[in-house]
TrEMBL record:
Family matches, as SUPFAM superfamilies: SET domain (SSF82199)
Organism: Timema tahoe
Pfam families listed in its UniProt record: Pre-SET (PF05033), SET (PF00856)
Entry's family note: Belongs to the class V-like SAM-binding methyltransferase superfamily. Histone-lysine methyltransferase family. Suvar3-9 subfamily.
Protein name (Swiss-Prot/TrEMBL): Histone-lysine N-methyltransferase
Enzyme nomenclature, EC number: 2.1.1.355
Major location (coarse): nucleus
Ranges of residues in domain Pre-SET: 115-175
One term of GO molecular function: zinc ion binding
Any one cellular-component term (Gene Ontology): nucleus
Positions of Zn(2+) 4 binding: C264, C342, C344, C349
Amino acid sequence: MKQFWTPGELRYESLSKAKMKQVLITLWNVPEGSRPGILVEHVKNLFMVYKMHELRVSQKQRLKEWETEMNYISSDSAKIYVENEADLEGPPRNFTYINHYIAGDNVTIPKSPPFGCLCEPECTIGSFCCGKLWNSRSAYGRDQRLLAELGTPIYECNKLCRCPPNCRNRVVQNGRVIDLAVFRTKNGCGWGLKAMQVIGKGAFVCEYTGEVITNKEADKRFNYAFTGDKTYLFGLSYNSKTNYPYSVDGSLFGNITRFINHSCDPNIVVYPVWVDCLDPNIPRLAFFARRMIRRGEELTIDYMCQLKEEEEIISETFLSSQCQDPTLLSEHASWNGLTITCKCGADSCRKYLF
């Protein structure tokens, strides 16, 4: 008998296909009335484990194919890994990996900035760079880690700027450089995302992508959560908490950031970033490390992050099916009074998401 196990919860032993066939033939040759009950149950259990092993082999193959596909499509230099050592769940259905925003119906995403900075040979803290051109500030230090306080809008150099591609003010646009893994959690939160290397405080981690849709369409898709469909909506609420015109939906089109789970004590935070699209209502959404993150640590954000009004420049509304089953929303939630139990397990847990 061969033992199959993983560091997670899938630990079992299974016979080879030939041995399993031999056991079934042996049992079949024993007259039905003479078969010991304990032997019959043992063979049943062996057969169930064997079938589970077949499912596990098929699952691992499909997950590997999904991993390969995402790495092929991804324009980032860093690698994506996929791990499931908890259950037999396979790749998500009806999900297309994309690298950048795509425009939904009645949405136009501008791609031509009106002007760029004149910094040569490169941008510095003291130069009149893009952040200062837009009445903000320099966002990054020489090591390309964040200097900007939470809530500060980030204006990176764009395609009209004279600075080189390795300019300190070109970070998010150059893509993810940190290896990450989509993995199956063991606490009932579905898929999650974790770091495959140490991440320093202030480092750019990843960017949220998806379909940019009108808020009328976002309201419609949000309602689907109450009928069992999954929504991954992120409100582009830079200019207003309530009257922002667009949201990003990562449910059908997106990248691995759609699998980021909630925590009341998150290790990454979101910043609005503008590069070539300078429409104030369509910032890119970039995640940065709030503190040092260990290898193997799950990446989490606060789904209900709300800064004080005088400090707030961007607020987020991010509903994912990862830490709550959307089929339960109709029983415990409504538009006017949402109540969803939080499962993050942090010492500072608020106990409820909404």
